[in-house]
Amino acid sequence: MIQNSELILNPDGSVYHLNLRPEHIAHDIIFVGDQNRVEKITQFFDSIEFSTQKREFKTQTGIYKGKRISVMSTGIGPDNIDIVINELDALVNIDLETRTPKETLTSLNIIRIGTSGSLQEDIPVDSFVMSKVGLGLDNMLRSYLIDEVSNAAIEDAFITHTNWDIRKGKPYAIACSEKLEKIIESDKIFKGITATAGGFYGPQGRVLRLNIQDEELNNKMDNFDFDGNKITNLEMETAAIYGLSALLGHNALSLNAIIANRASGTFSEDPYKAVDELIAYTLNKLAQK
Predict the structure, then answer these.
(1) Tell me, what CATH number does 143's domain have?
(2) Rounded distance, CA 44 to CA 139, Å?
């Protein structure tokens, strides 16, 4: 039995942070970072059956072309992902009344839709990027036993290439779900490695008033190559999503609309259009699944 202090429930029986009960979520879930983006997706739904919000965690569940889908905002960073995926897993794989894991486990399909800037000149603005691998620079997942789901070869190659300071913790590399990759992929989608940082400023190489440990890290990341896979973009959630999903038996995939290209110095003339096109593409692929 899982103790009350470990799995906290609200008085109505919902999980503590997400404010959700099992019947509130679909098995196909779209993640966004910003709570204001939830309705940018659900505006395309035929109907919405449920909506709730607690803090930055907003969830709406409805029907799109006959497919039941939930859309959820996760906020920013790997620490929030730790909350969201553990509580989602509890909703489908733990009996909340007896506080015991279920004998038959459920696998959720989780797709993150975001925006990002490309690190590679050959990935133009307004294109889509699929994260084939999430490379975690954040340390959150190292609180768990991850050896069975992580790729040590990529980790070691990255450490060597960047002369990584191990005092910051060992990076981890987790692959996306092959199942979702096959459902979503097309010739128009670029694939690569997405690096996940534990912060927005220093961890991503931004300097305001504080010096950072490695001023050349971003340049070294730009030219990292592992068996033809380069680091396409840098953000704050993908590797954590991939890691926890793999450990818990869920399918996860991260997609980004590229609205800027750092290598060429270009920015999308209509970034909202690029995001809307990625949303429509993803919804239609899920509806056909």
Answers:
(1) 3.40.50.1580
(2) 37
